[in-house]
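Practice problem: predict the structure.
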Amino acid sequence: PLPSNRHGGFGERSGETGREQSRHRAPGLLSVDAEGWVTRQVELQGPKLTPIAAASLDEWQQAHAAGRLDEYDSRFGITAELPISEWEGHKPEQLTSEEFEEVWGPARRQIASQPS
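Answer:
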């Protein structure tokens, strides 16, 4: 399991090898807080690992408070709604902060630069 206050990567569920089983799950990276809640999450798609989501829990909460949640969700996505301790069949691999940031920054810039 991924310790709290860490960064990790995720993808297929453990034991999943069939194309149909995993094709709707995007590989990605995440950052979790001390309680195991995902605070930032990047999802990547396709052979070129194109970013399709790069969500921040803090930004999501700010958008919710400002009444702009639909706009934020449609552009950046959302973070996982359960702490990682409650995920079934997923075993994130631990990453360094630098490894996470190398993907987070470019993913955010690419998504932010796309027309709404």
